[in-house]
């Protein structure tokens, strides 16, 4: 019995050490992810500002190095998990069988508890499971690191990536900031894409299979600044904010069998084309909304490069931030009257460097002046271009 208790205490100590190491490694991953995000923002800012090539090269090298360190830290966490599982499965003392005289009763092994807890022996032995569950395994093939059927990390050479048909889920950050990938084909077997799975990557095109039903609250493709085209399968019900800050996105195509969405000229609508859902962020020039549309969804035009928009009299509501940060927008034509209750106060406006929200005076002037064409007319007292006038 003393040997059994010593073995139990040894197992508990080993598990505690593994937990400490795991916590440290997890903290390292979080810190590196934060550094990577900050450095990526610096790189994108430098590229937009047309910084000197040597400065951009230094930032690219820094991003690559931090990404490498983050990948190593994530691998260390995975190894810690595997070692902990092996330790627990491989060193738990086996049950002892005592056969007292004139008795065939079998006593079970002491219950394994935390250090400091009393160990007791049950009077009756618990039934053994029919099968011993296998420890979760991590495999790697073709650059796809897997945990079960979840793709947890991609370390391949990049280019055109075709995800295997045995994948059912793409894990958080699996392709995060991977600038080597240019396109990805997500098979119908995938039903879930987790938080920022492809965020900041080098994708220029993506095809989402029929198995994915929701991208809400995932930011799955956020900051993919090179992404130009997206093809959506028949199963998607909620696109959410998956393509936020994809500044080069020019076209969205929807499978004809999708019962929830449709697309015309690369613009995303609901199936009946009564709701204007999403305009690709690289959209420029003039946009005339079809007469079938009755509502414009939140963030529908946000950060686009359009110069003018015509809103038909069929539109009865415009949601919050629908035209947010449309810095090139100079002309808006309202063909009908929209009730004040159906116009959010933050339909037109932008955010400044300190995070302050600045609204155009367009909505108050439209409510006072009614249908017609309004043009950007100048700056306010603070120096912001928020003043609009009716022609």
What is the structural class?
Answer: alpha/beta
Shape: globular
- Measure the end-to-end span: 93 Å
Strand portion, in percent? 15-25%
In short:
With 391 residues, the protein is an alpha/beta fold. It has helices at residues 2-48, 53-91, 362-369; strands at 138-141, 144-147, 150-154, 159-162, 169-170, 181-186, 192-193, 205-208, 229-232, 251-254, 261-264, 267-270, 275-278, 284-288, 295-296, 305-311, 317-318, 323-324, 331-334, 348-351, 357-359, 372-378, 387-390.
Attribute tags:
5-stranded parallel β-sheet; alpha/beta; Leucine-rich repeat, LRR (right-handed beta-alpha superhelix); 3 helices; 23% strand; disordered N terminus; 3 domains; globular; 24% helix; 5-stranded mixed β-sheet; single chain; 391 residues
Structural notes for this entry:
A hairpin with an 8-residue loop joins β22 and β23 (387-390). The chain has helices at 2-48, 53-91, 362-369, and strands at 138-141, 144-147, 150-154, 159-162, 169-170, 181-186, 192-193, 205-208, 229-232, 251-254, 261-264, 267-270, 275-278, 284-288, 295-296, 305-311, 317-318, 323-324, 331-334, 348-351, 357-359, 372-378, 387-390. It has 3 domains: 2-91; 138-268, Ribonuclease Inhibitor (Leucine-rich repeat, LRR (right-handed beta-alpha superhelix), Alpha-Beta Horseshoe); 283-391, no CATH class. The strands form 5 sheets. Strands 1-2-3-5-7 form a 5-stranded mixed β-sheet, with no helix packed on it. It has a 5-stranded parallel β-sheet with strand order 4-6-8-9-10, with no helix packed on it. It is built from 3 helices and 23 strands. The chain has 391 residues and is of the alpha/beta class.
């Amino acid at each position: 019995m003393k040997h059994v208790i010593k073995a139990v205490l040894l197992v508990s100590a080993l598990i505690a050490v593994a937990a400490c190491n795991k916590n440290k490694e997890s903290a390292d991953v979080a810190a590196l992810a934060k550094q990577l995000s900050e450095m990526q923002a610096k790189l994108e800012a430098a590229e937009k500002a047309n910084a000197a090539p040597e400065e951009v090269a230094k930032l690219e090298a820094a991003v690559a190095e931090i990404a490498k360190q983050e990948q190593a830290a994530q691998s260390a966490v995975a190894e810690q998990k595997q070692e902990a599982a092996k330790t627990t499965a491989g060193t738990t003392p086996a049950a002892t069988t005592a056969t007292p005289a004139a008795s065939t009763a079998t006593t079970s092994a002491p219950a394994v508890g935390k250090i400091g807890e009393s160990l007791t022996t049950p009077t009756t032995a618990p039934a053994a499971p029919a099968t011993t569950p296998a420890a979760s395994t991590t495999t790697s093939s073709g650059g796809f690191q897997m945990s079960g059927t979840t793709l947890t990390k991609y370390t391949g050479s990049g280019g055109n990536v075709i995800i295997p048909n045995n994948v059912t889920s793409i894990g958080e950050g699996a392709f995060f900031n991977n600038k080597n990938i240019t396109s990805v084909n997500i098979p119908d077997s995938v039903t879930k894409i987790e938080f920022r799975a492809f965020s900041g990557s080098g994708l220029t095109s993506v095809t989402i299979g029929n198995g994915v039903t929701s991208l809400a609250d995932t930011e799955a493709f956020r900051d993919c600044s090179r992404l130009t085209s997206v093809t959506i399968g028949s199963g998607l019900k909620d696109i959410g904010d998956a393509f936020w800050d994809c500044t080069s996105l020019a076209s969205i195509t929807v499978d004809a069998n999708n019962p929830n969405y449709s697309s015309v000229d690369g613009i995303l609508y609901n199936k009946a084309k009564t709701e204007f859902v999403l305009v690709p962020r690289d959209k420029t020039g003039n946009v005339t909304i079809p007469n079938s549309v009755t509502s414009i969804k939140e963030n529908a035009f946000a950060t686009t490069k359009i110069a003018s928009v015509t809103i038909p009299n069929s539109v009865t509501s415009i949601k919050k931030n629908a035209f947010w940060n449309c810095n090139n927008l100079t002309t808006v034509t309202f063909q009908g009257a929209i009730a004040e209750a159906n116009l959010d106060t933050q339909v037109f406006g932008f955010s400044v460097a300190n995070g302050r929200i600045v609204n155009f005076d367009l909505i108050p002037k439209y409510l006072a002046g009614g249908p017609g064409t309004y043009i950007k007319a100048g700056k306010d007292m603070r120096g912001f271009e928020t003043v609009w006038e009716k022609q």
